[in-house]
# Entry
Amino acid sequence: MTVSAKESFILKTLPPPAVFSFFAFLHFILGFTENMTIPVPLGLISLTLLAAGGIFAATSLYMFTAEGISPLPWKTNDTVLFTGGIYGISRNPMYLSLMLCLTGIGITFCPLLLLMTLPLMFHYLSLITEREETVNGILFGRNFSEYCRKTRRWL
# Structure
């Protein structure tokens, strides 16, 4: 799949945490203003998803910082190919953490909006991961191909 010039511009200018924050903000605003929050039992599911997202984010960020590499998505990591730890479960644990957290927030605050924001977030992150995987394939060659064969993109 090729990325158009417009999509490329958007991918370079909107970091995933900013897109996530915008969608989360929409959920909070609509959830509170329209009284579209859910009862406690589903809140436990939300907390579980938020906790899982937090664990994925924290462990993947730790791996980057322990190696002295910037985890920012617009900075290319050309020194280390992470294949162990949380990266042995998912090739994109940071992005997966955003999806899990958005789902947790969406279930609690304005679940109907989640039917729109979750597919949009997934599409956006899929475009980014395709671009990143192309770059990683060039940088790490056969090692990256083998890693892709063994490890799923998401879960």
